[in-house]
Sequence to fold (403 residues):
Amino acid sequence: MFTTNSHPTGRHFLQIPGPSPVPDRVLRAMSLPTIDHRGPEFGALGRQVLLGMREIFQTKQPVVIYPASGTGAWEAALVNTLSPGDDVLMYETGHFASLWAQLARRLGLKPEVLTLQVDDPVLPNAPGWRRGVQADLIEERLRKDDAHRIKAVCVVHNETSTGVTSDIAAVRRAIDAARHPALLLVDSISGLASADYRHDEWGVDVTVSGSQKGLMLPPGMSFNALSPRALEASKTARLPRSFWAWDEIVEMNKTGYWPYTPNTNLLYGLSESLDMLLGEGLPQVFARHQRWAAGVRAAVEAWGLPIQCADPAVYSPILTGVITPEGVDADEVRRLIHERFDLSLGTGLGKLKGRMFRMGHLGDSNDLTLVAMVAGVEMGLKLAGVPLADSGVRAIMAHFERG
Ligand SMILES: *Cc1c(COP(=O)(O)O)cnc(C)c1O
Fold:
């Protein structure tokens, strides 16, 4: 049997920005016996979670659930709406945005990647990875595309590699201002159910999401929220698809079933997490993450270390990226913290490797687990010889004491 026995006492601190800590309620719900996926009980479960997911996406349109990681739902969004050789405009806010562009290239699409070029003394090699999507750059590019060759605009809502969110409503306004018919495809794999997200109101055509971040589930399930325009586009899109094809799934989902075997026990977990999130109320869920994030940032500011996100207007409520001083290998700090305090932090991805680490504040957390995370990081930074201006632990405690 697989065992995580290297630290025998207490719970591991899973503070990476996904998979997030899974609530015991969800784990218990998932331990129920697997049922017949064509039987009468299953239809009721399927209908319930499909309706619940519409509330989470804030949409009245169909949501498709795949037994796959988020990457599968990325692929599904592209193959259902586009044709071989189509131009797509993809905005690079970080590593996940660049992986989505790579996926598009492998599918035979022609991604054009936009990113921000500005002087950044802290991270001169990745200034665009410290800021959100600049909607004006998208508008400017679309205005030049008189022939409407660009078929879709792809952006990441919460860039998990950096801790920067983007203003999706502004991207929709930019597309409309340019009077351009491109579809708007958004990755909210880590933003959904933690940061405010409004699929219908923001005019998104496909939103991609996954189970293991804000929904507080284990990995293995992912989502596409659709729009009428996306469904229309899927009728003429020519990229090959079978497993990902919306038509069959959407039709069968009307009765709560799938064309193939869905992951039954993850759906039990989803039903439970929907009860938790919708029971609390989405505005409360979003405010809770904002408050946690502000507490964690207070700690980073007390240490005197730069936050990866350089624009306070778009700080992520889900995770905080911390840049380590020049010459300090962030991965070595992470390794030390894991070894000494059984606490996992997110690594610096792509261009950020070794330069930063990421602290997650999502999933089954509370004020005290986050204070403990900050304590573990603070001890690790000291052990690694990083000079700290002040105590982050005192700062996060003061933040949470205020209410
Ligand atoms: C986690 C994540 C992904 C990748 O999802 P997988 O489930 O690992 O395939 C893509 N984009 C973002 C923004 C993510 O946070």
About this structure: The pocket of pyridoxal-5'-phosphate is lined by residues 18, 69-71, 96, 156, 160, 187, 189-190, 210, 213, 219 (CB under 6 Å). Residues 25-279 form a domain with the Aspartate Aminotransferase; domain 2 fold (CATH 3.40.640.10).
